[in-house]
Amino acid sequence: MKIAIKVLVVAAVFLIAQLTAAQAGEPVFTPIGHATFVLQAAGVTVYVDPVGELKSFAKLEPPDLILVTHIHKDHLNPAMIEALKTEETVIVGPATVIEQLGMGEGMKNGDKLAVAGVELEAIPAYNTTKGRLKFHPKGRDNGYVLTVGGKRIYISGDTEDIAEMRALTSIDYAFICMNLPYTMDVEQAASATLAFKPKVVIPYHYRGTKGVSDIDKFQKLVATLSGLEVRRLKWY
Q: 70, 116, 119, 139: most buried by Cβ count inside 10 Å?
């Protein structure tokens, strides 16, 4: 009984936090797992790399926009997208994603697009370290900057601490990956974050082949040196 009550209390606190953020005009981020989350802002609902179990999305608004970063199975599940989309849903991804889906709007690195109430810019996402280059070759995958409700939100996708990330400006929220061997380590992620200084940084996609990355260390590196807010969501 005590466990059940505790679960209800936690759920209530989470819901209140979401409502408070929405009332303040701030975007609401709902983590689903690993690289998958839902963004709600200014009456728009965006599903990012929707994979996992269909029931995880059951209590959420249907997507106005489904945004996919690349073709790896922890980011792209065609059957899931087919189940989640409505007739009004717009699907956006790089060419390799659109080819697999057989539908949607393709964006290549550097493209800009206004769709479903969201301004999108496709940011490169790729590996630079020897031994990792095969995972995410330059020019194939996307990260994104979304402008919605007056906020600029960066989603890194799978990448290392590339020059294009470091050159970003005026980012309100940044979702930063950090898992080896596929993307970058904690030090790289912290260094890149300190270079472009988002107002809020949200670690995500941080489970690698040897378990989860040291998010405590990341937070210490970023917050101690800059005072930036590190917001930790429940991904795993």
A: 70
